[in-house]
Amino acid sequence: MRKVRKYFYNTTTHRYEKFVVPLRTRLLRALGFLSASTVTALIIVAIAYRFLPSPGEKRSKQDIDRLREQYSALQKNLSTLDASIADSIRSGKPAPRTGDPYKYTATDLLINHLEDDVAALQARIRMQRRSYDTLEHLVKTKEDMLAAIPAIQPVSNKDLSHIASGFGYRIDPIYKTPKMHTGLDYASAMGTPIYATANGKVASTAFEEKGYGNHVVINHGYGYQTLYGHMVRIKVRPGAAVKRGEVIGWVGNTGKSTGPHCHYEVIRNGEKIDPVHYFFNDLSASDYERLVKIAAASNQSFD
Question: Closest Cα to residue 220, out of 247, 236, 196?
Fold first, then answer.
């Protein structure tokens, strides 16, 4: 359909000119339309909320109707029981119950039966609650234990290039003789962050001039401890609680060390064990195999 163009006669120019609605007028019309639409929508929504039930109200009404039906059925059953007991009393055949049957109506019998059922249910609930409490305690204990097992590398090592020396007999860098190396050496730049590898509490922080230099020992519980040596600076204090992944210090070259690195040990039940098997939160299966090969290489340690 063609759009109809409107014209008006301009008395100044003495010509018919195209009628143009001013921008202000168009904006006011649009604003008026939007306002009217908004008010209409609000009125419709208000009417809907006022007169139309919500899904929750519908469900509640259905539940109430169902309970009313059940209540009516129960009332009929009670009436039937009352009639049956009355017949038994008139015929001289009392209902099978201890005590004087003439003192009880069907409602009394039903209430007593329900009370017995409720008592049994309460006993079952108490037993289940004790079972749930026990299960919850076991789950919490399991979670705490998993969080306490060393499971990440102490230094960021995504490309696996920072392992300088592994666990086992290595050449001592000072005396040039084979010596048991009780941890992993991570060669990293001075000041690289060192992370707690599991949840625990700082057991000690100390300095050894001819040993680990500035070092931290964390007690994780469940028989586990970890040691982090040769730090340039220690961040944590003895007794502090730490979380896995929390920074506890920075890589340095203190103590008996021939270059900036972090010496890392895992101690289980007092025995120093190979830390390479405690990175399961950090490594894929293929990365783990690569790291084991790198750490097994016979070379010179850094400390």
Answer: 196
User: What φ, ψ does residue 133 adopt, rounded to 5°?
Assistant: -60, -40
Domain boundaries, the chain: 7-51, 163-296
d(CA 217, CA 264) in angstroms, rounded, equals: 10
Indicate left, alpha or beta for 26 from its phi (over 0: left) and psi (-120 to 50: alpha).
Answer: alpha
Residue 22 and residue 102: Cα distance in Å, rounded? 96
| 96 has pLDDT over 60 | no
pLDDT of 171 = 84
What's the pLDDT tens digit per position in 24-47? Answer: 777 777 777 877 878 787 787 777
Q: What is the pLDDT of residues 250-291, one digit of tens each?
A: 999 999 999 999 999 999 999 999 999 999 888 888 888 888
What average pLDDT is seen over the chain?
A: 80
Residue type, 141: T
B/e letters for 180-206, b = 16+ CB within 10 Å, e = fewer, are: ebbbbbbbbeeebbbbbbbbbebeebe
Judge: domain 163-296, CATH 2.70.70.10.
Answer: yes
Token pair, residue 256, equals: 């008996």
